[in-house]
Amino acid sequence: MLRALSAVLWQATFTHSHNEIIHLDQMHCSLFARSPRLDGCDPERMRAEIRDYFHTTFDRYEQLFETLACEEAYYKKPIPLRHPLIFYLGHSATFFINKLLLVGLISVRIHPQFESLFSVGVDEMSWDDLSDTHYDWPRVAELRDYRDQVRAGGPGDSRRPADPANRLG
């Protein structure tokens, strides 16, 4: 989603003056942090960069949803081959939890029901189960609480190394 928004911003620059292009490019860099480099020699500095990047991207993603005018908007599908927007708010947090579990950085799920509900279904496939009757979408406040728990239990505690004994598979 961030990449698509970034592309829209960049394409919009072609109709403006050179100074406006520079301004939009600078705005793009301040809105969308660069991915951290992982080739450094200082593990503590790298952990801090990854943690900061995680929180920055988490913030930007949530800001996209703050543009919705009312809670009902979260339950509308942008197009028939997509889930309602509430799915995408939950999906990114679930993605982080599932990846942290996979590499052994955490060993317990935060909300197993959410981590199942929001884990699949991003692809635009006609065979995806997109029937509204098959989903009991949570309230927005409930999902925001979950996202807060993910943020608190996610990469913010990156000082703890992965324990190979806890890794799956």
From TrEMBL:
Region (Disordered): 149-169
Organism: Sulfuriferula plumbiphila
One MF term in the entry's GO annotations: formylglycine-generating oxidase activity
Chain ranges of the DinB-like domain: 54-152
Source domain of life: Bacteria
One protein family per Pfam: DinB_2
InterPro entries per UniProt: DinB-like (IPR024775), Sulfatase_Mod_Factor_Kinase (IPR051043)
Coiled coil regions, renumbered to chain: none
Protein name (Swiss-Prot/TrEMBL): DinB-like domain-containing protein
